[in-house]
Amino acid sequence: MRDNFEVRRYDGAGRLGKLTVPRSSVTVETPALLPVVNPHVQTISPAQLESQFGAEILITNSYIIYGSDTLREPALADGLHEVLDFSGAIMTDSGSFQLAEYGDIDVTTPEILEFQQQIGSDIGTPVDIPTPPDVSREQAREEWETTLERLGVAESVDTGEMLVTAPVQGSTHPDLRERAAEEAAATGLDLAPVGAVVPLMNEYRFGDLVEVVAATKRGLPANVPVHLFGAGHPMMFALAAALGCDLFDSAAYALYARDDRYLTVRGTEHLGELSYFPCECPVCSEHTPDEVAEMDDDDRHRLLAEHNLAVSFGEIRRIKEAIRRGTLFELVETRVRGHPTLVDGYRALLDCVEQLETTDPVAKESFFYLSADSARRPEVTRHHDRLARLDAPEEVLLTTGQPSDRYEESWRLVVPFGPVPRSLSDVYPLTAETPDRLDRSAYVAAADGIARLVEANPETTFTVVHDGWPESALDVVPDRVAVEGYTPQEEQD
């Protein structure tokens, strides 16, 4: 793939980046939201998307334009940017959505790519086969092979400076997704959209979604920007960003507004069920739910769409700031508490902790322990891996209390990390902020750290002194370790 993407900062697999779009001489900062613009019906104009919401990039459907008697000729004559009145980057879909919905379309990959190039699209898309979730491996493999053939055809089309995507399919078979991503990355194309995942999001199958995206990421090099097709709800942006998704396209802001639905970072509300607007955007500050409900359809839908966009773009900015500060995991943990299936997605994300750890920074501002899931974060795994490489002296005390001169060395026990040489006590993440009432998972994680250190130092004699650890954690401590308990009051006496 061509080198058009620069990663500036990581947090987990989440990243701040710059996508260079050469045709319009535009640089898009990622993560980025691409509002979907229907070329026929625009609840919010592209010019307003740019001026009011700061949209740097949008997406529209070239197949609709291609088949429209009223849009095709103006787009060919004046260009897509002029027709839409948008100076940022424009990405175009190819009709694959219509293919998935209706079973066939009357355009080939060369025809639609040439058309996208002719109308001035900045990022074009070939006609891939969107394979839905839960199909057989055989169907998923056969349809991916067809898509791969079309990617090969796309490489041969003269698209000039227009970037071209290489959609990754494979249904809900992670190994096929990973292989498909590797083969897509081997093309000379530019972006890797994760395709056919909208059904998973519509059915709130966020655990399956995470497995699909994580597998796709394993097959891609770091310099490939990843587009999560159809990820339009702000409640899952942070989770998707933590997986390493860079681009999100949203038609939800308009589609939900037409159904009187109101987006929040915790889910969706219906306008008729709201007595107060729980938001500070201009729409919500200047109107009440009753006032908006009494408006005519056009005004009501426009205001709801403006709110939905404000929430969506606000969440993207919040994610960027979290990545910059190294607090993306804290944001994700906060967001996923809005729905049990998002918790499933977060736990599936943490199942990929070794994958996340490869790009997670070794130093950040802070580590907040917010739940049992925090014990599985990459920082804890990294510390355990480092413990296995440490050489311990002949006799070591591991204690939650004060050091003792009776031992050659006294190391701290820091929950959830485990043993910590005192010289590292002020090093991130061992300065973690934790609640006083920790859950059992935190102690079990610390005990796992003890086990890793003990295993790596078979000649060392270890003694553990703890302040009331639960039995589930003490059971993890190797049998050859002497274990003693104390209370803080005993230590003072």
From TrEMBL:
The active site is at D93 (nucleophile). The keyword Acetylation does not apply. InterPro entries: ArchSynthase1/Queuine_TRR, TGT-like_sf, TgtA, tRNA_ribo_trans-like. Binds 1 zinc ion per subunit. It comes from the Archaea. GO terms for molecular function: pentosyltransferase activity; zinc ion binding. GO terms for biological process: tRNA wobble guanine modification. Keywords: Glycosyltransferase, Metal-binding, Transferase, tRNA processing, Zinc. Zn(2+) binds at C279, C281, C284. Residues 13-340 form the tRNA-guanine(15) transglycosylase-like domain. One of its GO terms (cellular component) is cytoplasm. Its EC number is 2.4.2.48. Pathway: tRNA modification; archaeosine-tRNA biosynthesis. It catalyses: guanosine(15) in tRNA + 7-cyano-7-carbaguanine = 7-cyano-7-carbaguanosine(15) in tRNA + guanine. Its cofactor is Zn(2+). Substrate binds at D128, A196. The keyword Cell wall biogenesis/degradation does not apply. Exchanges the guanine residue with 7-cyano-7-deazaguanine (preQ0) at position 15 in the dihydrouridine loop (D-loop) of archaeal tRNAs. Belongs to the archaeosine tRNA-ribosyltransferase family. NCBIfam families: arcsn_tRNA_tgt (TIGR00432), tgt_general (TIGR00449). This is tRNA-guanine(15) transglycosylase. The gene is tgtA.
